[in-house]
Design brief:
seven-stranded parallel beta sheet; Rossmann fold; binds nicotinamide-adenine-dinucleotide
Length: 251
């Protein structure tokens, strides 16, 4: 494996599962020191063990609710205390409720905004001075849902469109400090987070019908793109959204 991230300190949210876990493994394999947080302590420690077994370095923090200002600030501060710097903030964690407009409650709407948008703002604000000092990178996980919308996605499409827009602002405000900001919009990825939706009758057939690549993605396919974006090879990429969707949106 190339060592494109050697010595970089990468803060990744949501490392207990899915794409966050895959990113922790991939970033560490490329030489990064990973600081991963999650609400789920046991599963996050499992990720750290996987990283260590592969010869990498990851510190697992938790439980950290990234949308909680104080908890998130403590996480960032502890990473800085250990390593003295932050080179990458990867805003991967999220949680949302899918429901039709007439069924979705105000509480479910607020939960989705908090756990898909507010936590990106909170983590970015906490890491901002350190990213400015290191000329670092903010990597945000958006979604194909942020480019369109389907039944049940009133909250999720709103939040992911917001993440894409926030990335433009972060890139513009980061530019004077040589901070880059990029979002990734995955298509459908096989993770614990997508399992329930993919198991719904007809979901997979409907998805494959509108996808140019006739399968779902694996988390490490997204992690590979994230590692490239965090590397020096992507130094000219900022203020944009990178779709990794098997042709789902373009079709
Ligand atoms: N799976 C897909 O098909 C898909 C597609 C497009 C975009 N995405 C996005 O990719 C990212 C990762 O998705 P996934 O499928 O790997 O999810 P996942 O549900 O498997 O993992 C998400 C992790 O984030 C953690 N988390 C949630 N809220 C948190 C909070 N407030 N504080 C700390 N940790 C929190 C969860 O505990 C969990 O471990 C998310 O932003 C998701 O919206 C997923």
């Amino acid at each position: 494996m190339q060592q494109r991230l050697a010595g970089k300190v990468a803060l990744i949210t949501g490392t207990a599962s899915g794409m966050g876990r895959a990113a922790a493994v991939r970033f560490a394999a490329e030489g990064a020191i990973v600081e991963g947080c999650d609400l789920d302590v046991a599963a996050n420690c499992e990720t750290a063990s996987m990283v260590a077994a592969a010869g990498g370095v990851m510190h697992a923090s938790g439980p950290v609710d990234v949308a909680d200002d104080e908890a998130c600030q403590r996480w960032v501060d502890s990473a800085v205390a250990r390593h003295g710097r932050v080179d990458v903030l990867y805003n991967n964690a999220s949680a949302c409720v899918f429901a039709p407009i007439d069924v979705m409650t105000r509480e479910q709407w607020d939960f989705t905004i908090r756990n898909e948008v507010t936590l990106v703002f909170v983590a970015t604000k906490a890491a901002w001075p350190h990213l400015c000092a290191s000329k670092g990178l903010i990597l945000n996980t958006a979604s194909v849902a942020g480019h369109g919308g389907g039944p049940g996605g009133i909250g999720h499409s709103a939040t992911k469109a917001a993440v894409i827009a926030m990335t433009h602002v972060m890139a513009a405000e980061g530019a004077p400090h040589e901070v880059r900001a990029v979002s990734i919009s995955p298509g459908v990825v096989e993770t614990p987070g997508s399992a329930e939706q993919l198991a719904m009758p007809g979901a997979m057939d409907g998805l494959l019908a509108v996808s140019l690549v006739k399968r779902v993605a694996q988390p490490d396919e997204i992690a590979a793109v994230a590692a490239f974006l965090a590397s020096g090879e992507a130094a000219f990429i900022t203020g944009t959204d990178v779709r990794v969707d098997g042709g789902l949106v373009n079709h």
